[in-house]
């Protein structure tokens, strides 16, 4: 018996690093795997149980491997708009917005969240790409703009329909956390410790992302998990939850070879930038907006129980028309689902395609994303 | 009925010329929730070390290797509706396939229960 495919980020770290909650996960029976250069819990009770618990109640995810950056200084707005297709003139304080780090040829180097704080911008970038992102930003941003890697901060995500009940009980602020709506944030205190909290996440559920000092991570994770609604959840369920929510995973569904138009992330190219351009890759991206991309990221629903995985080829008749970038069994829907890039002619919802899994052709149909409806609190 | 184990965490019960094959409790624990089992067709020939069967969990697809050579006699049809039997009863009701042994001497290279438990303890 051996793994044909397993969750990994494609990196071969020189030395696997530990995160502030490493011992905390191990004490709770977390099975630790290497991910993005760190030891991280892939599961505790089992992926399906953790997945369903999060959809039903609330799950606590340690996402401290992600890069938290603070970028400030003279001319920071213009400098950031030169590297991101974002319109900062419409970005209100404390409201995170999704954006993309783009290469000159329009490929996606990373996807990230940008929040305007009082005098600068707070960015959350992917763990596996954070070192490359830092190098890229240091090269692209002028000297007057400083980049601070908030390495002493941990990041937790509390996700699920009862996340708000659990967090409201323990977080204090000028307003209660219940006053936040989706993609709004603010500064709160948990057990007397300052926490930056936004109502956002990566599961499709209502929930929060919570940035705290690394030295307080154990205390706060304990307090959150003492709430009856909450259990710790591993990376395995994080992956199945985000797949059901139709959310792309960098390094799998997004890469330097994919453009935002192909990836169906047009909303990340803010309106003003469509006409003005002036961001990396604007030539290709604006041309694709005008005339369409040759291929598109789509959702595929499969019948039966056999899952198709990343790398599986997609066929229409006997013609290869695409490839899977994510795929697995959906615990909430009890059938397999996948994301794929397919030729534009076959990307319309309702189209019937076939996926090659070890020589067997599994029927699949193109469906609109998300697979499981989002339940954000708006 | 003697039971043998492989280093790849398959077990095989041998009764006369037929072996019943499954994965061990250790293996199912490592794989997690089993969602689908791709079972071999009766009548197909397998060589020791071939992967006639694939077990799908939420996170991965894993090959199950044939501990011995022979011909597939049958597979566990109950797993089509209830693949989770591999998790809940891996070493009995969650068996995978039966194989008619073509070379019983291949069993000599496998571990007995005590040797397998010692092997797993080292992992």
From TrEMBL, chain A:
Entry GO CC: glycine cleavage complex
Domain (GCVT N-terminal): residue spans on this chain: 22-271
Key words of the record: Aminotransferase, Methyltransferase, Transferase
GO aspect biological process, one term: methylation
Domain Aminomethyltransferase C-terminal: 295-372
EC number from the UniProt entry: 2.1.2.10
Top-rank EC class of the record's enzyme: transferase
Molecular function per GO: aminomethyltransferase activity; methyltransferase activity; transaminase activity
Reactions that this protein is recorded to catalyse: N(6)-[(R)-S(8)-aminomethyldihydrolipoyl]-L-lysyl-[protein] + (6S)-5,6,7,8-tetrahydrofolate = N(6)-[(R)-dihydrolipoyl]-L-lysyl-[protein] + (6R)-5,10-methylene-5,6,7,8-tetrahydrofolate + NH4(+)
Binding site for substrate: 209
Family: Belongs to the GcvT family.
Protein's UniProt name: aminomethyltransferase
Organism: Novosphingobium kunmingense
TrEMBL record, chain B:
InterPro entries: Biotin_lipoyl, GCV_H, GCV_H/Fam206, GCV_H_sub, Single_hybrid_motif
Domain Lipoyl-binding: 18-100
One of the record's GO cellular component terms: cytosol
Cofactor note: Binds 1 lipoyl cofactor covalently.
CDD domains, sorted: GCS_H
Cofactor(s) for this UniProt protein: (R)-lipoate
Gene3D superfamilies given in the database record: 2.40.50.100
Keywords of the record: Lipoyl
Family statement drawn from the similarity comment of this UniProt entry: Belongs to the GcvH family.
Free-text function comment from the UniProt entry: The glycine cleavage system catalyzes the degradation of glycine. The H protein shuttles the methylamine group of glycine from the P protein to the T protein.
Subunit architecture: The glycine cleavage system is composed of four proteins: P, T, L and H.
Protein's name according to its UniProt entry: Glycine cleavage system H protein
Protein source organism: Novosphingobium kunmingense
């Amino acid at each position: 018996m051996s793994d044909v495919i397993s969750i990994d980020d494609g990196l071969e770290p020189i030395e696997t690093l530990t995160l502030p909650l490493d011992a905390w996960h191990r004490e709770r029976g977390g099975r630790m795997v290497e991910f993005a250069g760190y030891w991280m819990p892939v599961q505790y009770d089992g992926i399906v149980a953790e997945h369903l618990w999060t959809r039903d109640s609330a799950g606590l995810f340690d996402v401290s491997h992600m890069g938290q950056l603070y970028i400030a200084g003279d001319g920071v707005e213009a400098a950031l708009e030169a590297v991101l297709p974002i319109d900062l003139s419409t970005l209100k304080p404390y409201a995170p917005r999704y954006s993309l780090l783009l290469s000159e040829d329009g490929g996606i180097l990373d996807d990230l969240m940008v929040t305007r704080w009082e005098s600068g911008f707070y960015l959350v970038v992917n763990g596996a790409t954070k070192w490359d992102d830092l190098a890229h930003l240091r090269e692209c941003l002028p000297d007057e703009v400083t980049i601070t890697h908030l390495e002493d901060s941990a990041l937790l995500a509390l996700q699920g329909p009862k996340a708000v009940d659990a967090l409201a009980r323990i977080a204090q602020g000028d307003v209660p956390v219940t006053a936040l709506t989706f993609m709004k944030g603010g500064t709160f205190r948990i057990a007397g410790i300052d926490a930056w909290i936004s109502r956002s996440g990566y599961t499709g559920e209502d929930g929060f992302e919570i940035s705290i000092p690394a030295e307080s991570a154990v205390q706060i994770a304990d307090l959150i998990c003492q709430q009856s609604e909450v259990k710790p959840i591993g990376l395995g369920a994080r992956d199945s939850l985000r797949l059901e929510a139709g959310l792309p995973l960098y390094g799998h569904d997004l890469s330097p070879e994919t453009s935002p138009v192909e990836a169906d992330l047009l909303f990340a190219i803010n309106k003003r930038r469509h006409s003005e351009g002036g961001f990396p890759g604007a030539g290709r991206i604006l041309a694709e907006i005008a005339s369409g991309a040759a291929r598109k990221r789509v959702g595929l629903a499969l019948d039966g129980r056999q899952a198709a995985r990343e790398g599986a080829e997609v066929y229409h008749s006997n013609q290869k028309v695409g490839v899977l970038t994510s795929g697995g069994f959906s615990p909430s829907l009890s059938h397999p689902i996948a994301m794929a890039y397919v030729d534009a002619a076959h990307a319309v919802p309702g189209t019937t395609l076939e996926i090659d899994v070890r020589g067997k052709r599994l029927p699949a149909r193109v469906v609109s994303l998300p697979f499981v409806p989002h339940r954000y609190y708006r | 009925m003697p039971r043998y184990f492989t280093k790849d965490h398959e077990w095989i019960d041998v009764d006369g010329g037929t072996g019943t094959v499954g994965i061990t409790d250790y293996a199912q624990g490592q794989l997690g929730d089993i969602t689908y089992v791709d079972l071999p067709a009766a009548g197909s020939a397998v060589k020791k070390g071939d992967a006639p069967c694939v077990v799908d969990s939420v996170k991965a697809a894993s090959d199950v290797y044939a501990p011995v050579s022979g011909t597939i006699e049958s597979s566990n049809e109950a797993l089509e509706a209830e693949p989770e039997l591999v998790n809940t009863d891996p070493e009995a009701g969650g068996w995978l396939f039966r194989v008619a042994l073509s070379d019983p001497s291949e069993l000599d290279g496998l571990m007995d229960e005590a040797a397998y438990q010692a092997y797993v303890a080292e992992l």
